[in-house]
């Protein structure tokens, strides 16, 4: 094993990085783009300040090095599930709710920058898990062996709200978080409209707010939607955004199955904070790695879904039966 050429079995560790003592060299090292002269100066500096680490390999291998084969991922997973069951949770709840949400909570703690923020206790973790009612679908739980089962469970949790025609629905979608966003978004919105915004008498226009999207990209999406026969309200009149125009009630003709517009679409901006405060939806779907900051989400059913492709989103929203 020690002379393997398999890159998957080779690990490299940087124990300590010694920054340059010379402020001028540090300034050059910090440059995003370095000239040929800069690179020569860096090379010369580190050649002149090279420090060799001295180590007795025989002593290290014979007296200090220990190789322990850990549990497999499956064994570790089963052990954790068993521990949660011993705390009084049913196996079904552990597999569908407790375990994936524990993975998600711990992962979110692990990426915090301040040490105190990364500290928790069994009591704190168990208290958070006991109050959870929704299966976490995030980048962290995607690696679990039962991820497809978790998607099915999450779809079931969303189903009751989606089956209610009259619910007011807002969506926040991060354009950077979903693969092939530009290519897929119009097709996805068309499928959504055909399912949830096609009955003038029973259904209301959904609101889609896009994060990390330029004005030019937004206008292109609106044009493509119009080409697909989907009228939208953007609230933009001339070069300005008008909240009253954005939130106006569409005219309807139920005999002809006609509605003036079937979607409200916008780019995330400060006005959205006022809109969410004044015109609260029943359901807010956040399709992103992070919740947008500064919004009052009181009295709103928030569905946080951290996924990176439209196929999974289609499945969760019951636009397709299989994934």
Plain-language structure description:
With 323 residues, this protein is of the alpha/beta class. The protein is 42% helix and 11% strand. The protein contains 12 helices and 10 strands. Strand 6 and strand 7 form a beta hairpin. Helix 4 crosses helix 5 and helix 8 packs across helix 9. The radius of gyration is 27 Å and the shape is globular. The two termini are 40 Å apart. 21% of the residues are buried.
Strand content: 5-15%
| Unreliable segments of 5+ consecutive residues | none
Q: Span from first to last CA?
A: 40 Å
Order of helices and strands: HHHHHHHEHEHEEEHEEEHEEH
The number of strands is 10
Structural class: alpha/beta
Number of helices: 12
* Biggest sheet: strand arrangement: 3-8-2-1-9-10
Which CATH class of the largest domain?
Answer: Alpha Beta
Q: What is Rg?
A: 27 Å
What percent of residues adopt helix (DSSP H or I)? 40-55%
CATH architecture of the largest domain: 3-Layer(aba) Sandwich
Biggest β-sheet description: 6 strands, parallel
CATH topology of the largest domain: Aldehyde Dehydrogenase, Chain A, domain 2
- The general outline is globular
Number of domains: 2
Q: Can you tag this structure with a few keywords?
A:
two-stranded antiparallel sheet, 11% strand, alpha/beta, 2 domains, six-stranded parallel sheet
